[in-house]
Structure formats: C-alpha cells, structure tokens
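Page 37, continued from 36.
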C-alpha cells in the first residue's frame, strides 16, 4: 500500500513500475541504458 495523503492511497496491485529509455540529451548512453522509470 502506497499512502500519498491521509485520504489518498494506492494498493500494490494498482502500481506498475517499468524501466524505459529516457529521451533528451545524453549521446550514445541514452540509446544504451534504461535510465528512466515509468510509474
């Protein structure tokens, strides 16, 4: 359970975390590494 405030919370099954490739400047490293997280 992720509690955001006293009245707002999310159950574990409602949360999906995945690694993605970030966009923007960074050269070749951006193309090779999953450097961002999508929640």
């Amino acid at each position: 359970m992720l509690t955001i405030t006293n009245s707002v919370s999310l159950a574990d099954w409602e949360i999906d975390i995945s690694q993605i490739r970030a966009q923007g400047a960074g050269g070749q490293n951006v193309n090779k590494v999953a450097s961002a997280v999508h929640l």
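Residues 2-38 form one domain. Flag for discussion at group meeting. The first strand starts at residue 2 and ends at 3.
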